[in-house]
Specification:
The structure is a single chain. The protein has about 350 residues and is α/β, with parallel strands linked by helices. The protein has two domains: about 190 residues, D-Maltodextrin-Binding Protein, domain 2; about 120 residues, D-Maltodextrin-Binding Protein, domain 2, CATH 3.40.190.10. The protein has 17 helices and ten strands. The strands form two sheets. A five-stranded mixed β-sheet has the order 2-1-3-10-4, sandwiched between helices. Helix 2 crosses helix 13, helix 10 crosses helix 14 and helix 13 crosses helix 14. The protein is globular. The relative contact order is 0.18. The N terminus is likely disordered.
Length: about 350
């Protein structure tokens, strides 16, 4: 009887010890805010390949419709990492949010696509950029024949699509954005639907929407490529909140290594990412051929070295300050942690 009691007691003690050990070694949870575009594809690859799970990390993906929305969650401590546009992070730092960019994800993602009269005469495949006087003439001709300025869809003020559109018009082509077009700032899904429905004449889009629109609206044309808008245009980045906090040490380097590995796969073997990206975007409803085509078109844009975008981020911030979109410049170098990437030996 006594032996039975002690045996049961020993079992309970053993179970309690094991529970404590499990808690002590539980996989760290990383909450990652992202927007549903191909710039976030490294996350989908990491998840699909189970690289983080194998590394003992539990990743929770939280979807947002724009970078500024994700920034609000970041500032509130509701997410630990962020994969979206880089410019809102400068504004976050200006408000005291301790966030650092540890990797780039993609460059030259954003393009301006036009439809209807604004697209007339444009080649099916962009060859030479339309710039300066030729671009002004196209907008002037549209306004004269339509009786109004062209409407261009973007995302909310302060987002990368909005800033890149204004930069392309003003800094690249010396056109006053307010005089040239009516810029309509809405969330990601609404912008895409507005363009498909003809509610706007052009929109700042990225993959996979660009490929999807080409198939649905064969007469739509590219008015400006990502390179036309800005050579080396900074796109999605991986940023970490409070990266030097003690709890980040449990996952930061392993997470970054997996992210860079996924970016390399997208760059060199995009077809391997098709099932992961398709499952993550639009509820798996996008046709396989659309996802494959968009990934192949984007392969050369996947760049993980954060040092490659420091100069372009500086240019965009200078433009935002000059335009009154940002009150005061922030030290761009302070936004980047370049050393963590270098330690990977890339």
């Amino acid at each position: 009887m006594a032996r039975s009691i002690f045996s049961r007691f020993g079992t309970y003690v053993f179970a309690a010890v094991m529970a404590l050990c499990t808690q002590a070694h539980a996989a760290p949870t990383v909450r990652v805010g992202y927007i549903p575009v191909l710039g976030s594809a490294p996350l989908f690859v990491m998840d699909g390949e189970h690289w983080l799970k194998d590394a003992g990390i539990d990743m929770q993906l939280i979807r947002f419709q724009s970078g500024p929305q994700a920034i609000q969650a970041l500032a509130a401590g509701k997410i630990d990492a962020y994969v979206a546009g880089v410019l809102p992070l400068l504004q976050a730092r200006a408000h005291g949010v301790n966030v650092k960019v540890v990797a780039s994800a993609a460059i030259e993602e954003l393009e301006v696509m036009a439809r209807g009269p604004l697209a007339e005469g444009l080649p099916e495949t962009p060859s030479q950029p339309i710039e300066g006087a030729a671009l002004k003439q196209r907008f002037d001709d549209f306004a004269r024949t339509s009786g109004r300025k062209a409407k261009i869809g973007a995302q909310p003020l302060g987002s990368v699509p909005d800033s890149m559109l204004r930069y392309w018009l003003k800094a690249r082509n010396d056109l006053d954005p307010a005089q040239t077009a009516d810029i309509v700032g809405v969330d990601l899904d609404a912008e895409q639907q507005a363009f498909l429905a003809g509610a706007v004449d052009a929109a700042v889009l990225r993959e996979p929407t660009l490929t999807l629109v080409r198939h649905r609206l064969p007469q739509a044309r590219i008015l400006a490529t990502g390179h036309d808008m800005m050579p080396g245009q900074p796109g999605s980045v991986l940023a970490i909140l409070n990266e030097d906090a003690p709890d980040r040490a449990a996952w930061k380097d392993r997470f970054l290594a997996a992210f860079v590995r996924a970016t390399d796969l997208l760059s060199h073997s995009p077809d391997e990412a098709v099932p992961y990206v398709r499952g993550a975007l639009a509820g798996g409803m996008l046709p396989v051929a659309i996802v494959q085509e968009s990934l192949r078109a984007s392969a050369s844009h996947y760049v993980s070295d954060p040092a490659s975008i420091v100069e372009s981020v500086t240019k965009l911030q200078d433009f935002e300050v000059q335009s009154g979109l940002l009150h005061a410049p922030q030290p761009v170098a302070d936004l980047f942690d370049l050393e963590s990437y270098r330690r990977l030996g890339k």
